[in-house]
Design a protein that fits this description.
The record marks 113 as: Plays an important role in the conformation switch to the active conformation. Helix content is 67%, strand content 4%. By secondary structure, the protein is mainly alpha-helical. The chain starts with a strand and ends with a helix.
């Protein structure tokens, strides 16, 4: 056997030599050198140090400025709140565990950390699905009533939270389980065992179908439709910019998360096969960096959001833009407000 399974853990290493220990009770330095865990600690501290202020400031600016209260920014607020939940609740657990070389918080802490990570990730995923559908509808029907779009997005936000709970809650209700993964200092869904007593196989199939294949299919269909009408003259530049922003946001998210999901599916489909704990660790921590992607992409691509941030920082003035430029500046959000 290429792995060692315990009551609440699975370590991808044979225990023939007797060195494997519970990741809830003992340091896992037989999996990697101590400096590797120190590096993970520093990396998690970096994500918290950068991710928290960037997401919080983006959230505050979006709420404070009325010209940003438009459908696309409603969804950005939803995604930013999800990222903040992950950063504030989950990341400190991971950083503290990496400092000690094992998941010191026990199974309860593992459930807590993994639940909020999965929940926040699913909110972002389904937010991108709703946003893609909204972009497709608007692009196919130019001039659509802004009030209808707002109602659609508000209902979509409720839908994202419902779908997130449908993925994050079952492992807490004994349909599958959360266990330490990789170098055993962060937790996730159990891809490693079939565990028939908690119907783990059916949950993994459900999760990968409903919470990966379905969103990817819907997003692909919407983007395919957008590609077919990209040269439609009825779609003004502001809507095209919004479409481009949505596409880049989605690509940024999937670049971070698809390696992790792909490795998880491979491990689940090849039960008992040998794999390095570094594999899941690298993909897992790449996925965690997605908390920075959404706000940074929006800041880089949306001029209006950047201007609002500068105005907020400079107490009502933008020292980098003269009056003429400011009067001519346009953005995704200002165009949507004008259409109202």
């Amino acid at each position: 056997m290429n792995g060692t399974e315990g009551p609440d853990f699975y370590i991808p290493m044979s225990n023939a030599s007797g060195v494997v220990r519970s990741p809830h009770e003992y340091p896992q330095y037989y999996l990697a050198e101590p400096w590797v865990f120190s590096f993970i600690t520093i990396y998690m501290f970096f994500l918290i140090l950068i991710g928290f202020p960037v997401n919080l400031f983006t959230l505050c600016v979006t709420i404070l400025h009325k010209n940003l209260r438009t459908p696309i920014y409603y969804m950005l607020v939803n995604m930013t709140m999800a990222d903040l939940i992950v950063i504030v609740v989950s990341f400190p657990f991971t950083m503290h565990a990496a400092m000690h070389g094992y998941f010191v918080h026990g199974q309860v802490g593992c459930n807590f950390e993994a639940f909020f990570t999965v929940h926040g990730t699913q909110i972002t995923l389904w937010s991108l699905v709703v946003l893609s559908v909204e972009r497709c509808i608007v692009s196919c029907s130019p001039g659509m009533d802004i009030h209808f779009r707002r109602r659609f997005i508000v209902k979509g936000i409720s839908f994202t939270w419902l779908m997130a709970f449908s993925c994050s809650l079952p492992p807490l209700l004994e349909w599958s389980r959360y266990i330490p993964e990789g170098l055993q200092c962060s937790c996730g869904v159990d891809y490693y065992t079939l565990k028939p007593d908690i119907y783990n196989e059916s949950f993994i199939n459900y999760m990968l179908t409903v919470h990966l294949i379905v969103p990817l299919t819907v997003i692909s269909l919407c983007f395919g439709r957008l590609l077919c009408i990209v040269n439609n003259e009825a779609i003004d530049k502001l809507e095209q910019d919004a479409n481009c922003l949505t596409v880049i946001l989605t690509l940024g998210f999937f670049i971070c998360w698809l390696p992790y999901a792909s490795i998880g599916w491979h491990i689940f489909s090849n039960q008992g096969s040998a794999f390095s704990p570094f594999t899941m660790t690298l993909t897992s921590f790449l996925a965690k960096s997605s908390v920075l992607s959404s706000p940074l992409i929006c800041i880089c691509m949306d001029k209006q959001l950047r201007q609002c941030m500068v105005i907020t920082l400079c107490r009502g003035k933008n020292p980098f833009a003269d009056n003429v430029e400011a009067s001519k500046s346009t953005s995704i959000s200002s165009g949507l407000v004008a259409a109202a």
